[in-house]
Hints:
The protein is α+β, with helices and mostly antiparallel strands.
Amino acid sequence: MKKILVLILVLFCFKTFSQTPEKKYQYIIVPVQYGFLDEVNEYQLNVLTRLRLKEVGFEVYMNEGEEKPQKIKLNRCLALNANVKEDKGIFTTTLIFELKDCFGKLVYQSEGTSRLKPFKEAYQQALNRALEKFQVDSSLFLKTSNEKQVSNISEINSDNKETKEKIPFEERANAYQLYGQTYWSLQKDDNYTIFTDKGKTIFANLEYAGQGSYSFDSADIDGLAFFDANGNLIVEYLAKEEDTVQKLEFKKQ
């Protein structure tokens, strides 16, 4: 009986490992590519990690390509280093989220699992679940705290479709401005489509990625998006040529 209890305890500790840090941190460094994947920001996991960590108040920077505060340049021990690994399974996708200090010492570990089959959806769900566990424990590590941004999303009821189709497109869709150009967003279930030309041309598709964030896919941009407290659409993506995070703000009209 004692052996069984010890085994259960060991397994639980692996699921979520948290060592109370000797100090709290304001900064976290996220790599632009995880070792188990072949491409920079593949499946948008790196930008997703960055967004989730920012939600709980950390200042997050991507590897060496993104400009950082001078004090981090002078002392890398002011920041934790994030990483994600895959624990391969036959029927499930399991990702392990880790935080290490500047000496490579593991200070936090949690894992998330998904049974979804498409790679992108499975990886994003597993990572979200691993990061949800960290968000619960984040106060142990966070030096400063910010209130989470609350999405202000106008939901469109999926009922009475025939009635909606009779309503002019401009009245059914939300208008946004970016660099002087007008875009429209139309919601269907949990996802959005961004149009130009008053609904004639699809500019981008937003697929729900969990916790109020969306995969943003357009001809030129593969990133992550969310709605801020004012209803503006914020898009963050990784510029592969520079390994830096770029930000677009579609202002709600």
